[in-house]
Specification:
single chain, mainly alpha, two-stranded antiparallel ribbon, 253 residues, 2 strands, 69% helix, 2 domains, flat
């Protein structure tokens, strides 16, 4: 699978959550997201309790609250969409601070915010406790199509290379006095993007030829085989199973 690559979302630590096999954490995070989506939107207390459960896991994983909250900024576009829903949705309306807002829109906004925030928080927590190489091994262990795993692996491996190439192209433009200040400069940026695409495509061809010359036949050999015991599966699924109990209570009450 290649050597490990550090990423900004990962937080190096020694905790029981970090020590869990990656495929158990992937499956548990997916199950937690499914449970959150299935939780009734009117059960506000259920989302609050699920957030407490997630915070307990974060504390157990030694992931600070500030670290987690900063990474949640990735959902800002969804928050903006949720804020607009009470203004554009139809149906019964109610006055809130002098503004006529849609009741269905308010519930829809709450639904997006609550479920989206908890789902993103679970994903950030997964990334914070699992290195990229381990995530790839976990996906392979969960029998994800090998081609998709290879594509993800190459994206991780060569993402920094392409980013560095883009940085060098920007420096070259600026050293020649170019500054993108308006629409009339979009043509230059478009040509730069085209050149970057061609260079990346040619690099991909060279990498593929190098791999074929070394015996590549469509699959990458697995160096480390990750396994998990029944106890590790139980610890990993403690969060989604607890959230499932809360979800069922939300539907029953």
């Amino acid at each position: 699978m290649g050597s490990g690559h550090a990423h900004r979302l990962h937080r190096h630590a020694h905790s029981p959550v970090h020590a869990l096999p990656p495929h158990t954490k992937l499956a548990a995070a997916f199950a937690f997201v499914v449970v959150m989506v299935s939780t009734p939107r009117a059960a506000i207390w259920a989302f609050a309790l699920s957030a407490v459960l997630l915070a307990f896991v974060a504390q157990h994983a030694r992931v600070p609250a500030g670290f987690l909250l900063r990474r949640l900024l990735i959902e800002v576009p969804f928050v903006a969409f949720a804020v607009l829903m009470p203004f554009v949705a139809g149906g019964e309306r109610v006055d809130v601070l002098g503004l006529p807002l849609s009741v269905n829109g308010l519930w829809g906004a709450w639904n997006v915010l609550a479920k989206g925030t908890l789902g993103v928080a679970a994903s950030v927590l997964l990334a914070a406790t699992t290195e990229l190489r381990e995530l790839l091994l976990g996906l392979q262990r969960l029998k994800l199509p090998p081609l998709l795993v290879q594509i993800a692996s190459f994206m991780i491996r060569y993402g920094d290379v392409v980013t560095d190439e883009m940085r060098r192209m920007r420096i070259a433009r600026e050293s020649r006095g170019f500054e993108a200040r308006g629409v009339r400069h979009w043509g230059v940026l478009a040509k730069s993007a085209g050149a970057l695409f061609i260079r990346s495509y040619e690099r991909g061809e060279r990498v593929h030829l190098a791999m074929v010359s070394r015996g590549y036949a469509g699959s990458v050999p697995v160096i480390d085989e990750v396994t998990a015991s029944r106890a590790e599966w139980s610890r990993a699924f403690a969060l989604p199973l607890s959230a499932l109990v809360v979800c069922l209570l939300g539907w029953a009450l």
